[in-house]
Amino acid sequence: MSAQDATHYDLVVVGAGSGNTIVDDRFSHLRVAIVERGPFGGTCVNRGCIPSKMYVHAAELATSALRGPALGVATGLENGALQAGARWSQLRERVLGRIDQVAADGEEYRRGLDFVDVLTGTARFTGPRRLVVETEEGERTLTADQVVLATGSRPVVPDVPGLHDVPHLTSDTVMRLEELPRRIVVLGGGYVGTELAHVLSGLGVAVLQVEGEDRLLSNQDREVGELVSRAAAQRWEVRLGVRLAEAHRTPDGSAELRLDDGSVVHTDLVLVAVGRRPNGDQLDLDAGGVAADDTGLIEVDEHQRTSVEGVWALGDASSTQPLKHVANQDARVVQHNLLHPDDLVVSDHRHVPNAVFTEPQVAAVGLTEEQAREQGLDLAVARQDVADTAYGWALQADPDDDAPSGPGGFVKLLADRSTGLLVGAHVVGPMAATLIQPLIQAISNDVAVRGLARSQYWIHPAPTEVVETALLALEEELS
Ligand SMILES: Cc1cc2nc3c(=O)[nH]c(=O)nc-3n(C[C@H](O)[C@H](O)[C@H](O)COP(=O)(O)OP(=O)(O)OC[C@H]3O[C@@H](n4cnc5c(N)ncnc54)[C@H](O)[C@@H]3O)c2cc1C
Ligand SMILES: NC(=O)c1ccc[n+]([C@@H]2O[C@H](COP(=O)([O-])OP(=O)(O)OC[C@H]3O[C@@H](n4cnc5c(N)ncnc54)[C@H](O)[C@@H]3O)[C@@H](O)[C@H]2O)c1
């Protein structure tokens, strides 16, 4: 078939991350194509949420062992180091063995469906709802009634002089390292940098983390970012308020980095974690007539429709909150709207929670205190320390122990006095991503703070009591 001969489909999905979840039996009366250039499952399964959290769990085991001796449990700690360390090759095998199988099974299943064609290659627009796919066998042209753009995002490697010449990784490649380096510099103190610095340090690598802002996780509530920065600095070296100025490859193949405060650092590897950008810039969106911003972020309305009729976008390709639970809900909305064109549903991006799986764990929903004050809200603020709850005592080596990765965490709640509603919730400490769920429920359903704690039992002495007491303190503040 020549490049000019187009194959027509009812539906083409570009990107088999969250996009792959759209196609089910309800589409079996249609002719569907799924175009994917990499492994099925996208970022989350292959190089994001799943492998990172599998490694995080291993790092958590290693770091909890570090606290063992203070609590009277011998865990093989000698001179501040674990004597029984991580076996990277075994860990890596466990992680890759699982995710690679999931990706392969997902693709095989799709290829087995008679109403779906799977095309391996990179798609780009050549006209409205007209795409060319570069496959190993040559170009294929597709036209479609409906196109779903689920093309995700990729890590940014900044144009710092010399950075491309020194050994460096991104989150795309770090999960598959053959061996752990002795030393690593983690560039960036956001989600990726702070989770992976925790993993690498927990597994025995000497980590130096460099963040341009004055604290790690600078998008979180200030107090949370400050606590995480203190906790990190107790485990690995953290340099705040500095950036990489230039990099040189040394004769032995390692890297010499000059930071913009004039200091020089030597390292075996650099992990670049300074943000991600959407992949829309690689789609020739102009040719397709699809509107996007300067970064390639595709514009969508509340139904996930782009500027072209019949073209939809979802997840990291179109969201300012590039998180998997957002991509999942976007995909459910697109799926419904494709199946029910006369009964479109709306995407709900009002109260998107987030969690950072570092140590201490962090979770948040709604406004930070700084954002709420900037908006001029008449604010009630309450804070409850984990250490002052019954479960906190279980974590403490002694009554003064406020180790940030142990009992040193807290719950911070913000309410608008004019409505009596929660506007922000921040949890830092053990199990933060789990503890926050009742607060996500309250904020999403406009449940009044008054009476919320007392309207239900809270199991004693479970970790959730910290949420109960924070809510009671907030109610007191509001009265
Ligand atoms: C290290 C890391 C950890 C993360 N941890 C979490 C977490 O704990 N929780 C959380 O909520 N989120 C997490 N995320 C974010 C999460 O992975 C993403 O938000 C999510 O995967 C986005 O899904 P998506 O379907 O929009 O895009 P993706 O999963 O990126 O899927 C896009 C797919 O499109 C394909 N593609 C792109 N362009 C083309 C093209 N032109 N032609 C053909 N195919 C194309 C890509 O190959 C890819 O498979 C993490 C991200 C990273 C990097
Ligand atoms: N747990 C999760 O949900 C999770 C985990 C990982 C990634 N993600 C997603 O991936 C996205 C990208 O994560 P990320 O950590 O790469 O980006 P990010 O935007 O969260 O953090 C990047 C950090 O790098 C810093 N920075 C930028 N340029 C720098 C420089 N030259 N020198 C030093 N510091 C610099 C920024 O100040 C910022 O703190 C996140 O926004 C999130 O949506 C989510």
UniProtKB/TrEMBL annotation:
InterPro entries reported for this sequence: FAD/NAD-bd_sf, FAD/NAD-binding_dom, FAD/NAD-linked_Rdtase_dimer_sf, Pyr_nuc-diS_OxRdtase, Pyr_nucl-diS_OxRdtase_dimer, Pyr_OxRdtase_I_AS
GO MF terms held by the record: mycothione reductase [NAD(P)H] activity
Known EC number: 1.8.1.15
Enzyme class: oxidoreductase
Pyridine nucleotide-disulphide oxidoreductase dimerisation domain: residues covered: 352-470
FAD/NAD(P)-binding domain residues: 9-328
Named cofactor requirement(s): FAD
Entry-linked Pfam families: Pyr_redox_2 (PF07992), Pyr_redox_dim (PF02852)
Keywords: Disulfide bond, FAD, Flavoprotein, NADP, Oxidoreductase, Redox-active center
Oxidoreductase is among the record's keywords: yes
The organism's place on the tree of life at top rank: Bacteria
NCBIfam families per the UniProt record, alphabetical: PRK07846.1
PANTHER family: MERCURIC REDUCTASE, PYRIDINE NUCLEOTIDE-DISULFIDE OXIDOREDUCTASE RCLA-RELATED
Family statement: Belongs to the class-I pyridine nucleotide-disulfide oxidoreductase family.
Name of this protein: Mycothione reductase
Biological source species: Nocardioides imazamoxiresistens
